[in-house]
Design a protein that fits this description.
This protein is of the alpha+beta class. The chain contains two helices and four strands; from the N terminus they run αββββα. It has helices at residues 13-29, 80-90; strands at 34-37, 44-51, 54-59, 70-73. A four-stranded antiparallel beta sheet has the order 3-2-1-4.
Length: 102
């Protein structure tokens, strides 16, 4: 198995600077209940993904990969994919009859 060296443009201080920028962005979004991508009107659920050991803000539905494009949004989540993922994580939908015997 061959080791792949890191690209020269992403080593040492560059990685540290990017990691610091991503940490700062996560702190800026920490109190948000939802986020918008760029100037979009859809409110997405805020999630966290790990990148090189750094917690990075992300949208729950994976619609955007650039955390620097996210901005805090007031109001409830309106993205159907984010809402669907939230239901999957909860398991049974309240008030709905379970299809599986427990």
């Amino acid at each position: 198995m061959t080791e792949h060296p890191e690209p020269e443009h992403l080593t040492g201080p560059d990685i540290e600077h990017l990691a610091a920028t991503l940490r700062r962005r996560r702190e800026q979004l920490a109190g948000a209940t939802g986020v918008r991508i760029g100037q979009g009107s859809v409110v997405h659920g805020l999630a966290t993904h790990m990148w090189a050991g750094v917690a990075v803000p992300a949208v729950a539905c994976h619609a955007a990969v650039d955390p620097l494009r996210l901005s805090p949004a007031a109001g409830p989540v309106t993205c159907r994919r984010c809402l669907g993922r939230a239901r999957q994580e909860q398991g049974q939908v309240p008030g709905q009859t379970s299809l599986l015997e427990e």
